[in-house]
Amino acid sequence: MTLSSGALFALGLFSALWLLAGLWAVGRGIAMQRRAAFVAGQAERLGSLVEASPQLPVIVRADWRIEASEKLGRWLGLEQGPRNFDELRGLGSGLDLDGHDALRQAILGAQRGAKPFTLSLKPQGSQRTIILHGAPAPQAVGGPGSVLLWLSDATDGQHALAQARSERDEAMAAFEALSGLIEAAPFPMWFRDTDLNLALVNSAYVRAVEAKSAVAVIDGGIELCETVAGVSAAEAADEARIAGSAQIRTIPVTIEGERRIMRVVDVPLAPTGGRVIGIAGYAIDIQELESERGAHRRFVDTQRELLDRLSAAVAQFGPDQGLAFANLPFRRLFALEAEDVSEARAFARLLDAWREGGRTPEVRDYPEWRQVHVDWFAQAGASEEDWLLRDGTHLHVVAQPTPDGGLLLIAEDKTEQVQLAGARDTLLRVRTATFDNLFEAIAVFAPDGRLHLWNQRFRRLWGIEEGTLAAHPRVDALMGGLADRLVKPNQISIVQEVIRAATLERQQRGGEIGFADGRYFDFASIPLPDGNALLIMLDITPSRKMEGALRERNEALEAADKVKTAFLSRMSYELRTPLTSIGGFGEMLQAGYAGKLSEQQQGYVDAIMDSVAVLGRQIDNVLDLAQGEAGSLVVERAPVDVRKLLDGALTDARAIAAAEKVELVGNISPDLGRIDGDAPRLSRLVAGLLDNAVRYTAPTRKSGGRVLLHATGDAHGIDIIVSDNGPGMPEAVAAVTKGQQAGTASGGIGLALARQLVAAHGGSMEVLSEAGQGTLVRISLPRRV
């Protein structure tokens, strides 16, 4: 069959097209193969990247099938990778019921409402924390209703986050504490930002500037510190920022309306040495400190002026061991020059100079001695030494380290005290020897009642061991064990009370105690000027025995005197009766009842009557004396003309004076007046004195005997004096006048009675007598009693 050319052309064209199509298909296949290989490589690479990624993709399809790598099973603790949603749970592994249900609900929400979600789940039996981010999957990935989950292991991140939160909480707590501390600080504090503007101030700052609040301070830019020397507060803070370190300045600041000296500190804040983020500042009130410093300087100056007036030598050395101060006694004692102080001469060099001048003790190893004393500066406590210098001076040296590392050196010249101590020791030995040889027992008690000193007689008296006394016991403990030595043991309390009165009340008291062995002692406690009390005990046993004998004798004498007085009283009454009869008959004879008497008979009767009168007066005197000694003498009170009474006494005494050839003289003042008294007894008193004076004067003088009656008076009373130039009063009679013994002489009775009568009239009587010179009796009687 023959084909037309058109057909051949069409066939050739078809074949060509077919060949081109085959070639294109082959090329297309090769290209697709290459792309498939590229895609497979890319898929493999993407799978590797996904496997190596910290996040794990999981696709949950609409039928709850799961597409995920085996890694999901390992994260959930499953034995194999899950293929459907229910396999996400296992026994003791996988998700728990609550987590499984929560994930289901979230997936349903994403499928139905296309809502993304985020969950945090913890597999059972594992510490792992898994974060799930879920959202609807793209159509090309999982098909309709699929959900794409991205899982990430947040275990390490959670730990880091928890730690970060803990650190944050701690930092916030520290910041709050620091903020509270800053707010509670009693001094102003503030913070400036990078622009040096105030960003934070505390309450003390607000009060200092008298602002309403911290906000008002910050908004108004109220500065606490004023511009000083052209530098403002902000400029001072900028200087601290530039310097990169704290800057301190002392300036005057007005605080709550009062001018104060403040120490202001600006501190640049640069965390870990980085860029400065702000300037912190604070101001401390040093007004009191500056005042105290000024006061301290004044105190130091005053102290040094005072030290210059002390007798003790005082020097102060600084921390560098240089001499800072030396008072005048120190400079004199150690021969210091002014330049030694001004140049702050070192202590070691001063020791060398003092050694050359003989102002240190002689020692065998001076370098060692010198180093020991240089070490005084480093010691913890004071050191004391006694230095004996070559010239015989005794120094007591005290070295006291000071808190600043210096040294206070005090030297006191004890030479005179050492000499006095030697003399004192000698005196103490003399005193001890004197005490021990005294007849009295002596003990000295201190103000607290302790035994201080004693002598051996005191120890032997009480029978106490020396060791007991050497312990210086208290008086109650000492005397409490000695009560058995006394006749009456309770009397020991009297001794204690006497000592207590002398030590505490400063009163001297005494007493008497008897010992069981028959001895008796007088004791007394005497307060001493130093506050102690001296107890003295004197043995009075012999005098006590003598006193007993004298007491017995006195009692016998008193009994005899009573017998004598009773006898005299009785005899006086018995004698008065016959004497009255004799007087009565004598008066009858004188009156002529028995007839006229001759002259001789008349003389006999007159003599009888004179004797009766004298004897009557003697009997009255004896009666008055007896009543006086018995205390029953009663005198009558009536006006008495004293001159008339004395003239009568002179007249009555002239007869006996003429008979005894004794001159009787009266010197009586005419204005004696009257006194209240017993006229008869006063008359007998004066008559008795005149009679005694005449009788004692007459026997010793052949001629020239003289008795004087002298009387004067004033508005208060009268004085009557009877004197003679006789031989003086015998001792027995003188004893009567002094009331020492009764006596029996008529003169003694008269003087004794005269004394009693004068005392009964409220007066006084004085008798002066000297052998060979005579006797004078002075009687003073008051006008009124």
CA radius of gyration is 69 Å
The strand line-up of the biggest sheet is 2-1-5-4-3
Total domains, how many? 5
Structural class: alpha+beta
List the main descriptive attributes of the protein structure presented here:
alpha+beta; Beta-Lactamase; two-component regulatory system; elongated; PAS; transferase; EC 2.7.13.3; 785 residues; five-stranded antiparallel β-sheet
Describe this protein's structure.
By secondary structure, the protein is of the alpha+beta class. Residues 739-745 have low confidence and may be disordered. It has five domains: 47-153, PAS domain (Beta-Lactamase, 2-Layer Sandwich); 185-285, Beta-Lactamase (2-Layer Sandwich), CATH 3.30.450.20; 292-413, 2-Layer Sandwich (Beta-Lactamase); 420-538, PAS domain (Beta-Lactamase, 2-Layer Sandwich), CATH 3.30.450.20; 635-782, 2-Layer Sandwich (Heat Shock Protein 90). The strands form six sheets. Strands 2-1-5-4-3 form a five-stranded antiparallel sheet. It has a five-stranded antiparallel sheet with strand order 7-6-10-9-8. This is histidine kinase.
What layout of secondary structure does this protein have?
Blueprint: H1 5-52, E1 55-60, E2 66-67, H2 71-76, H3 97-113, E3 117-121, E4 130-136, H4 139-142, E5 147-153, H5 155-184, E6 189-192, E7 198-201, H6 203-208, H7 214-220, H8 233-243, E8 247-255, E9 258-269, E10 278-285, H9 287-309, E11 313-317, E12 323-326, H10 328-333, H11 338-342, H12 347-356, H13 366-374, E13 383-388, E14 394-401, E15 407-413, H14 415-436, E16 441-445, E17 451-454, H15 456-462, H16 466-470, H17 475-480, H18 492-503, E18 509-514, E19 520-527, E20 533-539, H19 541-591, H20 599-630, E21 638-641, H21 642-659, E22 662-668, E23 674-677, H22 679-697, E24 705-713, E25 717-724, H23 731-737, H24 746-760, E26 764-770, E27 774-782
Parallel strand pairs: 22-24
Antiparallel strand pairs: 1-2, 1-5, 3-4, 4-5, 6-7, 6-10, 8-9, 9-10, 11-12, 11-15, 13-14, 14-15, 16-17, 16-20, 18-19, 19-20, 21-23, 24-25, 25-27, 26-27
Helix pairs in contact: 12-13, 19-20, 20-24, 21-22, 22-24, 23-24
